[in-house]
Amino acid sequence: MAPSRGALARSLHVTLASHKGPVHVARYAKGTAKYILTGGQDRTIRLWNANLGTEIKAFASHGYEVLSISVAHDNAKFASSGGDRSVFIWDVATGVTTRRLPGHMSKINVVELNEDASVVASGSFDATVRLWDLRAQNRAPIQILEEARDAVQTVCIDSTTIITGSTDGHVRTYDLRKGELRSDFIGEPVVSVVPTQDGQTVLVTTPDSTLRLMDMSTGKMLNKFTGHVNKSYRIRGCFGHGEANIVCGDENGQVWEWDLLDSHLMQPNPPPKVHDKVITWTEHHPTDAGEMITASADGTCKVWRHPE
Length: 308
Description:
This protein is an all-beta fold. The protein is built from no helices and 27 strands.
């Protein structure tokens, strides 16, 4: 059931504040998603209890900032990347890295595990995407995608498709079954691409203060969402509960919400300032209509719920 208008969770539940410096990414665990992983400028990844707001564990092996995290389907492991030029694979229980996959020539902006965590895709400032088979002993990538002409900022992967977004202004869709590539020119640096669950449309975030809903089969723009401020930073927008709404933080620390179908801004408009600096990441709870998280350069991640 689609939520009623303005049903975005906007009451602060807890603030997760152990990071020293900007938080670049915040991901829900899979399944019931009771836990959150955050990664930051301080080179650490932290595991949190979303309900209590307590830090359970810190993962500290990165030598540079952490820019991306992807959690496996069973929550037993996760992948991370950042300034290190290697993809890190972690065992959650022991808190140590089980593999490090070198090969990129520059920082790795994004890392994404496939559905069964057998393959990890990484996108880098070096303009390549590398695919790694985690079941193989060999640490060489199984494939390198070199079509981007500038930094790869975002990657999505499923069983048949890989979608990439690059600073060169293109969203590229690789059909792995047919061996085909489609390139859609957005015209602005693409910093985030989030597909709908059916894979028919994608939400594209660009630093011209715009989000676009694109049709995956034709590459046409279905809708455009504006009003927020995003000119200088990589910000991740997302879908709200049931994919009825679009949600995105901005450089003024505000969280904006739009109706997906008519692109109208939802109330409150303008929304209140809830972070002191740019909101780098917004992620809605995968199943709970009344919870979402925001991460910010102010050093915090915040869990939002409906008032009790």
